[in-house]
Each structure stands twice: as structure tokens, then as C-alpha cells.
Specification:
Blueprint: H1 2-19, H2 22-25, H3 29-61, H4 69-75, H5 94-147, H6 150-155, H7 158-166, H8 171-200, H9 202-249, H10 251-256, H11 260-313, H12 333-375, E1 396-403, E2 412-419, E3 424-429, H13 435-442, E4 450-455, E5 458-459, H14 465-469, E6 472-475, H15 486-491, H16 499-508, H17 512-516, H18 535-548, E7 553-557, H19 565-578, E8 583-587, H20 591-594, E9 599-604, E10 607-612, H21 614-620, H22 623-632, H23 637-641
Parallel strand pairs: 3-8, 3-9, 6-7, 7-8
Antiparallel strand pairs: 1-2, 1-4, 4-5, 9-10
Helix pairs in contact: 3-5, 3-12, 5-7, 5-8, 5-12, 7-9, 8-9, 8-12, 9-11, 9-12, 11-12, 16-18, 21-22
Amino acid sequence: MSWHLSGASEMKALVKLVWRCWPYYRPQLKHLITFVALNLLIGFVIYGSLFLANDLIENKILLGERLQPLQAKLLLVGDDYVTTGAADEARLSDEQRQRVRLGVLIAGAAIWVVLTAYVAAVWYYMIWIYQRINQHLRVEMLARAEHLSLKYHSQSRTGDAIYRVYQDSATITHVLQYIILGPLRVVASVAFMLLLLLFFSPWLGLIIIAAAVPIVWLMRRQMPVVREQARLARERNSDLTARIQESLAAIRVIKASGAEQRLMAKFEADSQQALDAAFAMRKAMAVLMMAVLVIGLMAVLVAEYFMATWAITEQATYLGGTIALVGYAVWNLGAYKTAASQGEKSAILIWELAYLWSIVQDLTVGLKRAFYLLDLEPEVTDPEHPRRFPSALTSVSFREVVFAYGAEQPVLKGVNLNARPGSVTAIVGGTGAGKSTLMSLLLRLYDPDTGEVSINGIDLREFGVDEVRANVAIALQQNILFAQSIADNLRYGRDDIDDRAVVEAAKIACADEFINQMPEGYATELGERGGKLSTGQRQRLSIARAVLRDTPILILDEPTASLDAETEHRVLANLAAWGRDRVVFIITHRLSTIRNADQIALLEHGKLIELGTHEELLARQGAYHRFVQAEIGPTDEGAVDE
């Protein structure tokens, strides 16, 4: 009883999982119906042709028996070839048999040519349908991944998301092939062959049914093993993808550290684990399919023994006398070969069904991994009735902001900060103090756990995410650039910006000079991750990109860390002039940048411990004074105060 409940539960879970695919199949429903109809048609033609051809070859050509009326019409021969039903009627002459043979060869060649073209066209049609379905799911998965907060991405490996989007998403098309259409085709074929065998003798059907009992027991016993191995195989391959992604992303660091051998050792270990897991899954599948095939062929051997006996004694077939299509009223050579071939095909189809059911276990694992990404609810969402972003900015405030990536250790602890248009606020502090996290809250990359970030006194969570990010620009410390032209990199996300605005932004970031010295100026194609540029050049392009967005709030994350003193001074002067009516936040360690800020916010272990101008904070002789001393190194008090 427990076995039955377990099987019913598994089937219910599978049906539920397949039903989730329906929204992705529905747009292609008319194509799927057409595809199934085309397959049914081709199946009918193939099986019907083989059935007719087998009788024509075995009984008409080899034994000289006369044709059935339908056969004569198909071969375009006269009534003198057709049987009259008389017991003593003459057999076909040698000349007539040669004419039938020629007709079979011509018809077979014609059918082969037509079916080859037909199958190729239907196969292409199937791939076209499958790729449209896969495209739908892939796009939705990536869109969901993009809408998840950075808290999720910071806790997950990028390679795992890549594997889910690229590989696991493909299982939705395999569902059609291996869970719906494939089993449907196999079951329909087995049912058709069972009917043919019952046409000869009901005992043949009983033999096949008897063989099905141990086969079903084996499948039920082995499937959990296959499913577990499939889960491990996908997880190991996901880990391998993550290893490749992380290695290529950090290739400069790896080469600079001389860690190539260590990297290859880790890659080889991950690759071997993925290979072992894939092999273990296929081994479990092979054991099952071999056992099913052995049972099926044993049943065929038993059936063939009886069929051979019936053919030798020329016993009457079960329903042969009632069907006028072919002459199988009694067991003869043609009847034996036809029934035996159908029995062998049934055994192969049962083996294929075991194979398909094994593949289903892997597909369910892949589908669950794909839908896992879709089931994740974004932590940062739009309100039901979002407010419009203020046209005139008066303040940006952080009020008692608390945030943690995990429950065990808050990153920000009760931060209070206010900034007004025309001001530059420097966010300073040691590594891990929470500087970048604080600015990420302003972009709604995260939402605070408690407290609020507000614009003009309105909580950011009352605005739509896109509305906030359209009004806040950021120049990231990582200087992310793409393998596109310089102009396209600066416009990234804003294709509506004209060339004049691009040049103006580049001038503010002091990037116009080196851009014009490049072979094709602003049309120069950059290498992967901006590899053709120096670190300082990439940093200036990052600043220009942020300036080009022309937002009322600008965040600069270590904007001048790779610039020389003269260029830094020019960039900051340009930004000060450009940002007279804007709120600017600068995350930095460079004292030359900090000194000129309107206010300095010093974070330490997630707390805002000091706030004021450079001179005010130095005068307090507190944490900021110690921070400055640590930045400039051992010096006397005069140097610090200068």
C-alpha cells in the first residue's frame, strides 16, 4: 500500500511540475498541435506501409499468393492479380510476381524520398517550436535574476545562475520530447502492436502483459536511484560552471599571483566530480534499461516459440478471417515474420519507455532548478501605487538605518545622515565599515531592515525601483566596461542620448583627451571588460557614464583611486561645477578628495560615529583624526592638521 501511495505521490508531483510548463507552451499551442498531427500522420504512413510491404514481400512475391483488392489498386495492376477467395485458385505467375516486385520497389523508393523530405521538415519545425519555448523561459529566468536584490546575488555563485539559465532552462523543451510526446508515441506504438498481435492470437498479448509486471517493479525500484544521481550530476556541473566563470573573471589576479597550477588542480577536481556524477547517473540508467531489455527479449523468445509452432501446424489466426486487408487467415511464414517483428519492436519500445522514464528523472531535477529561480520572490519590489520622484530635490536622508546580509551580523547599525543639493558628502571608513552598502540602499539595490532612506522626506520604498534608479547614477569602483565602442559604453542603458552629450560627459571626467587619441575616437571598440584601457582610463569612463545619466543624485565609489594628483584635481573641480544643484556622495580613502567635501561621514563597524567638515573633525582629535593619521602614515600633528 505504501508503495502505491509513494508512486501516486511521485506521479502527482510530476504532473504538477509539467503543468507549470503550460504558460510557456500556450503561445506555441497551435504549432504543437500541428506538430503532433504531423507525427501521427507520418507514423500511420510508416507503419501502414511496412505492414502492407511485409505481406506483399513474404506472401505475394515469395509465395505467389494473390493480392487483396486494395493492394492491387495501390500497385496499379489488373483484377487478374486479385484473389477470388476460392480454395483452389491459381497462384501468381513468375511474370506477375516480378511485376508486383517492381511495383513494390518503385512504391518503396517513392515513399522513402517523400518521407525523408517530410521527416526533415518536421524535425526542423520541431526545433523551431522548442527554441521559441526555451527562449521564453530563458528570458523570464534572467529577468527574475536581475530583479532579485543584491543580497541574493551576494550569497549565490554567479556560475550557478548561469547554469540554471543556460542549461536547466532547456529541460522545458525536453519535457515535451521525453515526458509528453515521446511516451505518447511509444505508448501509441505499443498499443498498435498489441492490437496486431491480438489480431494473430490473444496469448501473445498475455505474454507481453506478464513481462510488464517485473519491468514495472524494476522501474519503481531503480527510479529513486536515477533521480538522486541526476540531482548530483546537475549540482556538480553547476559547480564546474561556477569554477570556470570565477576563474576567467579573476584571470589577471590568477596570473599575477602565479596561481595557474593551483587553479588547474581545482578545475580538474571539479571536472572529475562532474564526470563521475554524470557517469554514475548513466550507469544507473544502463542497469535499468539492460534489465528491461533482457525481460522483454525473453518474453519475445517465448512468444516466438508458440508462433513457430502455430505456423508449422498452420493454425487459424484469431481474427485473420474477418479482415480483408491482408491474407493472414492462417499462420504461415508471412504471419510468423510479421508477428515476430511486432513482438521484437514491442520489446524495443518497452526498453525505450524505460529510457524515457529515466530521462524524466533528470528532467524533473532540471525543471525544479529552473523554476527555483522563478519562485524566488524579489526582496526589493514596487509599491502597489508608486509615487512620482520629486521634480525638485531638497534632501536625501538616512534615518536609523539598519541592514544585514544575514541575521547573524548587521552591516549598518542605526545610521543617520542628511545631504542637500549642491553638497558633496564624503563617505569614509575602513574596509567592511558599510560604505558601499549604505550607498546601495540609496539605489534600492537593497531595502533597509529597519529605518528608512528618504527623498524629500518620502521613504524610497514608496517609489518604483525603476523610478529611483532613473534618478540616481553611480560610478562603480569595479569600472565595469563591455566589449562595445566607447560611445556605447558611456551610453549604456540610455540609447537615446546624442553624441554631443556623450562628449560633454567625457570632458567632465577628463576622458575626452585620451579618447580622441585612440584610432577611431569614440567609435573605438573596447576589449572584454575594457582590457585595452589602463585602470585610470577605465575609471574616468565610469565617471563619464554616471555623469551622462544627468541625475539629481550621483554616487562615486572610489572615483579617483587610480588617477594621478593633477587629473584627480581637474576631475573633482569639474564635478563640483557640474553638481551645483545635485547631491553628490563620494566613497573614498584619498585625503585630497575628502578635504574638499562639504561634509564627511565616518563609518566604523556599520555605525556613523563622526560627521562634519574636514577641519571640524580634525579639531575633535577623535576617530577621524586617527583615520587621517592611518591614511598618511607616521607623521607629526602639523602634517595632519595641514
